[in-house]
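INTERNAL AUDIT FORM
Audit reference: QA-55
Scope: verify that the stored structure record matches its stored sequence.
Auditor: D.O.
Record contents follow.
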Amino acid sequence: MSDKYDVIVIGGGPGGYVAAIRAAQLGYKTACIEKRINKQGKPALGGTCLNVGCIPSKALLDSSWKYHEAEGAFADHGIKVGKLDIDVKAMQERKDKVVLQLTGGVASLFQANKVTWLQGSGQLKANKQVVFTPNEGDEQTLEADNVILAAGSVPVEIPPAEVDQKIIVDSTGALEFDSVPKKLGVIGAGIIGLELGSVWSRLGSEVTVLEAVDTFLPAVDKQISKEAQKLFTKQGLDIKLGARVTASKKNKNSVRVTYTDKDGEHEETFDRLIVAVGRRPYTEGLLSQDAGVTLDERNFIYVDNQCRTDVPGVYAIGDLVRGPALAHKAIEEGVMVAEVIAGEHTQVNYDAVPGVIYTHPEVAWVGKTEEEVKESGEPYKIGAVPFAANGRALAAGEPAGLVKFVVDEKTDRVLGMHVLGPQASELIQQGVVAMEFGASIEDLQLMVFGHPSLSETVHEAALAADYKAIHVAQRRRKK
């Protein structure tokens, strides 16, 4: 093993492995340090996202939705089925197979691009030296012209509900249930809490979501979040806002949770409890005292707009730095940093990073909410159209939700797009492309959209911003 590299990446998650591959493509001698051991007891690339996050959760979301459709929606299509049952073990095995296929694919990409995978942990020291501690073997000091820190994040823990991965679990443990809990509690009504709560609710759990904040999805456009809360409640999620958990007491097969809200103190007993209150940067052991890298008060690594730290030649990306903890943000930062190292002209557009919640219907957004634009005092207009007016959505039995645009009234530029509905994660990319190219809402109005398609709702919402919508009746909006 060499002890000198052009680029060393610490962390093999979405940001780290992509940064390593791109650096190698650009001709740099590159190593990626990753210590993860998967549930099969073998070294694995892909970080939280591929192993215990984005990918396995989507596998379970899709499996649980198919069960839900078979249970309730098939009859509407004239499809008759017998008595349904869910084989949780088989569902989990399928999820694990998907994970192994993808993580194995990353390892193959490392081989194809001649990236050296160092299996173990890394710590940055002064002068861009990296102490590599193998999973097996002796510690070694490596040198690099450039170091990219991509160690990711870990779930936030809270004292009132200490995780044991049996009765009280974090997001990782919630992916490994071997049976469907009769009563499931979820602390946190954010992306992770809603997605995992949805999985087990569809399979038969009685799910209660306890959220300390008084507002549902406060970062999401209010019109979208209000409608989403109605839909999720109708689906069976009991969402309690302003509910702050103060204590928990575990028994052999259950946990009693105490929480307070505006009406006082309450207790509920659950078979399982998921703690999903957010994630924090994983910096433990990452930096020596003389590394020279600056952390802020929340333990994020300070970086500039191109992810440079205070140390020349040292970069940090993904969940370690400012901005949303999203895999796709980390990926693009990884590409950007590799290209910055190569002297190329590149920049992540942080104003056009989409967010997605993979519930059903999905929630997705990019850019500014109506509330943010209204608060700025700048004149704006909105166009919003429900999927109930879309032929493709109705034919598919997916009429819930809407598409909404927020537009600068003076320049006609698209400031934000918000979607609640079928395939929102795919439709939102139309807003991302529009914003990336500085499109006006008129540009979208003049485009031809295939019929019938869900995308026609995007077109109608664009038309609605100027009261030109054809398939919905509009009233002029009072300002």
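Auditor finding: record pair retrieved intact. The CA atoms of residues 360 and 419 lie 12 Å apart.
Action required: none
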